[in-house]
Structure formats: structure tokens, C-alpha cells
């Protein structure tokens, strides 16, 4: 991988430069005011809009953007940065880490218009669990809406508490749906094959189980499992060679970047490079080689919120690098990948806690900050300087 000096952060704001037609309507998001500063590094930052507790985003083929907000709102963002609420979102169990989570498009979205969402779903007696549903996104006519919504997956069992849902969604290059399922702060389910918590799951697009999953012959929820022994896996992505990477929050120390193997056991809660929050030690990965150790880990933690392996042309120097949105680290962490190895290269200071990152249609990098009044940011390469005596293109 190429090596580059640490870029200095700059803030510049302008209107959105994606391809789409704009949306109109009222929502809790607002276009950001225009503010500009001269470039100071290999990227410029545009402040596009502001959202309330945003969690994830996905680009439509026309360049518009879907953004989820934890309280249960799905927003359709247009070319002017304005947003229109999408109707038909199911009720969510909002609180703590729970609420509306990820959003992903079916690989054949252009023809079937299917959108997948994850969310915390209430159960009986104060319990809750993650769920994944799919629906058709209706954009013609008036208000955008989800129609024909059906739940295709649920965490088993539902439990008390409001943490570690994880529920990141990803369609892989082979068309399978990948779901990250957190341990719900219950520890032991990550090793229990009668639960699909603390696991990475591989499903068909309708929620059924592929016959070649590693534990398919066990039946039940075990058949869904591709890898186990995970704590709070909040980011998954494939590199250009088809390797699947996963990033997760560790306990007190020991955030992990893992290279996922078919049927692999990553050890939690039996091993970890962190310890329990109450001070109880957890044996390190090095004490038990029967479990797969992380390729990279962090103490102090970065509190990862997602994962993007960059493949665009806008930043050729970053092709193949992993970008991890950091919450407690308040940075976009860039990691250089080299085959099955990884090293942290730099941290991009974007002015606060970072919840999510996505690659735009033009190769730009889009970032959602975390919390109330959180900004949607677009990172683009700076414009080429105009030589003296020449005029810019009309």
C-alpha cells in the first residue's frame, strides 16, 4: 500500500453535489449552512445536512440517499440536502442502543426496489431483539413509502436490555445477505449455537438459509451462523479479493478488526484482549490459540461504528484501505490492508463522534456523525489548482 502523510482536517461546507433530483417535504433534518475554508490536506469536507441520532445510510442508483434515525425515522435525502420522511417504517424499540438501525439495497434494487432495514423489536415482558425486514421502496407519486414489509430474520431469543444489537447489513458480491448479531450484553450466547446472538450470519435474500452454510446440518438458528464468538460487531465489508472483514467493540479495551473465516470462532467471552467493565480479567487471545485472534486490536478503544473498504477512484491513494468510524476516538480511522494483514495509518479528525461511513457514487466518502444535531459530511478530493494565465472550464 502507498504511504501518505497525515492529512490535516479542514471544514468546508457547500451544497450537495450528487446526481439526484431533490426531495421536498418536512423532516427533522436540515441542510447545513454554507461555510468554507481553504483546503489543508488531500480532501475537502462538505457539511450536507443535520440529523437526529442518525445510524446508517445507503445510496440509491439515482444518487439520492437513505438515512436512518434511531427513533424510527427513515429519511430520503435529495440533491439540496433536504430530507423527506419515508412512510411505512415499523415500530421500533427505541432506547439505549436500540431503535432503527441499518439500511441496505437489494443487489437488484433497480428492478425489484427492495430495501432491507434492521431495527430493535419489542417482545413480551420488556424484552427486545434485533429484527431485519424487507420492503419495496415506493418513490412514484407523493410521499415515499415502504410497502409490503415482511420480517425475514430475528435475534433468538429476545432478552432484556438495550445494548449490543449490532444488526449491520451487507450484501456480498455473491448476493448473500450478511447480518452482524451482537451478544446483547449477555456474554454466553456468543458461544451458544442455540442462539444467533454474538454471531455473523449468512442468509439468502429472503431470509432462508443457504445449504452450504458451515453449520447448516445442525438446523435451527445454528444453520444461519457463518462465524461465532463475537461481542458487538458493528462493521462488515469485503475487500477486492473477496476477503470478509469485521470490526467490533471490545469490552474494557480490545476493540477488534477480524478477518472472517468460514465457521470460525473468535473467542468471546472466553478470550479477549480487553477485560470486563467490572474489572474481572478475560484471558488474552494469546492464551488460547484454538480461537481466531484479531488481525488488529485497540486499547485504548476506538469504539467502532461501522466499516468501509474503499474502492473508489476519487482517492486512488486510499484504494483498498479500510475506514472505521470511531465514536470514543472521535475520528475516521484509516487502516491499510495488505493481504491478511492490517495496520492503522491515520485518524481523520472530523469534529466529533463518527457513527457511519459509506462510499458515494463518485468515489467520495460520506460520514455520519453521532448523536443529536449530527452532521452528514462528504469528503472529496480538493479541486486542482488553476495555472496562472489559464481560465477554468466553463
CATH class: Mainly Beta
Major sheet description: 5 strands, antiparallel
Going across the major beta sheet, what is the strand order? 1-2-25-24-23
Alpha-carbon Rg, integer: 21 Å
Question: H/E series, N to C?
Answer: EEEEEEEHEEEEEEEEEEEEEEEEEE
Uncertain runs: 1-27, 33-40
First-last Cα distance: 37 Å
What is the fold named in CATH at topology level? Neuraminidase
Give the quaternary arrangement of the chains. Answer: single chain
What's the helix count?
1
3D shape: globular
User: What would you say the CATH architecture is?
Assistant: 6 Propeller
Number of strands: 25
Class computed from helices, strands and strand pairing: mainly beta
Percent in helix: under 10%
Signal peptide: 1-20
Keywords: Signal
Protein name: Glucose dehydrogenase
Domain Glucose/Sorbosone dehydrogenase: 51-378
Question: How are the elements arranged and paired?
Answer:
Blueprint: E1 30-31, E2 44-51, E3 54-59, E4 65-69, E5 73-77, E6 83-85, E7 100-105, H1 109-112, E8 114-122, E9 128-138, E10 145-154, E11 166-171, E12 177-181, E13 199-203, E14 225-228, E15 232-238, E16 244-249, E17 255-259, E18 296-298, E19 308-309, E20 322-326, E21 331-338, E22 341-348, E23 354-359, E24 365-369, E25 374-380
Antiparallel strand pairs: 1-2, 2-25, 3-4, 4-5, 5-6, 7-8, 8-9, 9-10, 11-12, 12-13, 13-14, 15-16, 16-17, 17-18, 19-20, 20-21, 21-22, 23-24, 24-25
Domain Glucose/Sorbosone dehydrogenase: 51-378
Protein name: Glucose dehydrogenase
Keywords: Signal
Amino acid at each position: 500500500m502507498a504511504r501518505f502523510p497525515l492529512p490535516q482536517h479542514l471544514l468546508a461546507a457547500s451544497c450537495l453535489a450528487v446526481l439526484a433530483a431533490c426531495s421536498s417535504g418536512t423532516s427533522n433534518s436540515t441542510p447545513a449552512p454554507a461555510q468554507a475554508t481553504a483546503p489543508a490536506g488531500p480532501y475537502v469536507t462538505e457539511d450536507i445536512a443535520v440529523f437526529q441520532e442518525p445510524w446508517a445510510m445507503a445510496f440509491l442508483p439515482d444518487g439520492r440517499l437513505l438515512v436512518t434515525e434511531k427513533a424510527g425515522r427513515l429519511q430520503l435525502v435529495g440533491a439540496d440536502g433536504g430530507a423527506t420522511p419515508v412512510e411505512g417504517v415499523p415500530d421500533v424499540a427505541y432506547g439505549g442502543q436500540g431503535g432503527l438501525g441499518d439500511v441496505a439495497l437489494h443487489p437488484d434494487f433497480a428492478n425489484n426496489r427492495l430495501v432491507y432495514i434492521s431495527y430493535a423489536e419489542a417482545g413480551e415482558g420488556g424484552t427486545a431483539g434485533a429484527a431485519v425486514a424487507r420492503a419495496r421502496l415506493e418513490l412514484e407519486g407523493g410521499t415515499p413509502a415502504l410497502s409490503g414489509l415482511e420480517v425475514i430474520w430475528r435475534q433468538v431469543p429476545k432478552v432484556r436490555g438495550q445494548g449490543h444489537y449490532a444488526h449491520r447489513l451487507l450484501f456480498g458480491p455473491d448476493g448473500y445477505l450478511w447480518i452482524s448479531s451482537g451478544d446483547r450484553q449477555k456474554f454466553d450466547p456468543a458461544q451458544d449455537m442455540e442462539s444467533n446472538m454474538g454471531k455473523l450470519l449468512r442468509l439468502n435474500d429472503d431470509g432462508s438459509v443457504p445449504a452450504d452454510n458451515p453449520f447448516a446440518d445442525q438446523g435451527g438458528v445454528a444453520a444461519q451462523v457463518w462465524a461465532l464468538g463475537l461481542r458487538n460487531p458493528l462493521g462488515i465489508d469485503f475487500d477486492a479479493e473477496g476477503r470478509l472483514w469485521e470490526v467490533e467493540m471490545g469490552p474494557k479495551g480490545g476493540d477488534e478488526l477480524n478477518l472472517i473465516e468460514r465457521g470460525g470462532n473468535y473467542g468471546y467471552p472466553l478470550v479477549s484482549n480487553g477485560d470486563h467493565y467490572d474489572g474481572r480479567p478475560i484471558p488474552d487471545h494469546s492464551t488460547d490459540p484454538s480461537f481466531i485472534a484479531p488481525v488488529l486490536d485497540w486499547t485504548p478503544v476506538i469504539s467502532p461504528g461501522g466499516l468501509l473498504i474503499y474502492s473508489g477512484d476519487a482517492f486512488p491513494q486510499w484504494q483498498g484501505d479500510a475506514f472505521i468510524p470511531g465514536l470514543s476516538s472521535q475520528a475516521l480511522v484509516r487502516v491499510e490492508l495488505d493481504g491478511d494483514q492490517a495496520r492503522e495509518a491515520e485518524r481523520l479528525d472530523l469534529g466529533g463522534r463518527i457513527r457511519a461511513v459509506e462510499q458515494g457514487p463518485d468515489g467520495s466518502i460520506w460520514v455520519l456523525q453521532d448523536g443529536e444535531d449530527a452532521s452528514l459530511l462528504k469528503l472529496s478530493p480538493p479541486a486542482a489548482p488553476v495555472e496562472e494565465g489559464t481560465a477554468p472550464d466553463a
